[in-house]
Amino acid sequence: NAGVTQTPKFRVLKTGQSMTLLCAQDMNHEYMYWYRQDPGMGLRLIHYSVGEGTTAKGEVPDGYNVSRLKKQNFLLGLESAAPSQTSVYFCASRPEWRGINTYEQYFGPGTRLTVT
Amino acid sequence: GNSVTQMEGPVTLSEEAFLTINCTYTATGYPSLFWYVQYPGEGLQLLLKATKADDKGSNKGFEATYRKETTSFHLEKGSVQVSDSAVYFCALSALGFQKLVFGTGTRLLVSP
Q: How do the pLDDT tens digits run along chain B, 112 residues long?
């Protein structure tokens, strides 16, 4: 049981390049999330999904797109990378709400992205 | 809107010292409150939680009490260890638990 995994772990992009970050979970969770972590700003929600085939915007969605074609995968895309997107990206997942003990989010190890 | 405010770090302590990390929140309704911990190079892990007023969450010697009257959820530990060095995030639930709102994080450094 690997939990939440993220690919790649590190990446350097030039301004204007595109890339896709992959998040995979093997816990059969309904909900998945993409966050970015920046110094002094904590974690900010980019996009999230409440089930296969669904996506919704979070707090800072501009410049990113997402897709959830399979329940276990949640992809985050940067179509034209900008230096402001230099950050550490975390994926998380959570089971469907079935009461107080099912709200915990499980996090992946993160992807460090640098845009030059 | 919903927001979480944490004390700025880093917090630097010697081993066996008492720890307090302050957290206050603003929320509509009755959120649940959480402390997450991030060890170096890793993702976040849930440390403890409290789901209603006056609840005390506890885990690994850490405690926090949900104080509705002061809108606070301060993290405490009686005797810290070097292995507790990490970044601690306070968070609250929003939108029926669909989302978490995080504070900015507080780095704790414990020296031997």
A: 889 999 888 999 999 999 999 999 999 878 889 999 999 888 899 999 998 899 999 999 999 999 999 999 999 999 999 999 999 999 998 656 678 899 999 999 999 9
Burial of B40 (0-12, 13-18, 19+ CB in 10 A): exposed
Cis preceding linkage at B10, omega within 30: yes
- How many angstroms separate the CA atoms of A54 and A48, rounded? 8
d(CA A81, CA A76): 12
Contacts of A104 in chain B (CB under 8 A): 46, 49
Residue B105 C-alpha, separation from nearest chain A C-alpha, in angstroms: 6
Task: Compute the distance between CA of residue B93 and CA of residue B99 in angstroms, rounded to an integer.
Answer: 6
What is the number of helices (H) and of strands (E) in chain A? Answer: 0, 11
